[in-house]
Amino acid sequence: MPENNITNRKTTNGEKKLKPCCACPETKRFLILDLMHIRSDGNAQEAHVLHQEILRLDAVVKKKIDVISTTKDERSLLDETKQTRECLATLRSKIEQLYKIGPMLLSRREQQNVNGYVERHQKELEENIRQMRLVAISTSKKISEFTRTSLMQGKSGEFERRKIISDKNMLRENAEKVSYVKYEIS
């Protein structure tokens, strides 16, 4: 089974061609070059695909940052920040790949475009990291403040959870005693 971004067709020198990712002008240009049997620059197409992946990952990171701001407890806050950091690391590696492809492009104009993309993506990455830190800190403060106030009122989440568990255990024990008493009487 072929991968998502590779077709079964091969170029004249045996390299696999990348599958177009969208209907944007750059992809159309690659398709026209392919139809005319002109050897297109594979690095340019790879750079375009990486650029699209970076944009998609950036949107995912922003959604994850929004999810961090809505968490209600410390465990989910830690899980969400861990997932967001993993997405940020993936995003950083994609940007580095795009940076490495830039000098390999044949056209100077395409090199300049890719370098511009890399600069913008790096700035956006740094902004996302800063935003994630701010949101995580503010959410952590809100959670600790809520925990503190609930402790003052005697209604901590842990206390409530333990109370529910002890109530369930008591009900189970009482049910066992009642069933035991019924069998003794009969």
Characteristics of this structure?
186 residues; mainly alpha; Methane Monooxygenase Hydroxylase, Chain G, domain 1; 5 helices; 2 strands
If you had to describe this structure to a student in words, what would you say it looks like?
With 186 residues, the protein is mainly alpha-helical. The protein has a domain at 29-141: Methane Monooxygenase Hydroxylase, Chain G, domain 1. Helices cover 76% and strands 4% of the residues. A hairpin with a 5-residue loop joins β1 and β2 (16-18). α2 (42-69) runs parallel beside α4. 17% of the residues are buried.
Strand content: under 5%
What would you call the structural class?
A: mainly alpha
Which CATH class of the domain at 29-141 is shown? Mainly Alpha
The count of β-strands is 2
Write down the overall geometry.
elongated
CATH 2nd-level architecture of the domain at 29-141: Up-down Bundle
Distance between the termini: 69 Å
How much helical structure, as a percent, in the residues?
A: over 70%
Kindly summarize this structure in a few lines.
With about 190 residues, the protein is mainly α. About 75% of the residues lie in helices and about 5% in strands. The N terminus is likely disordered.
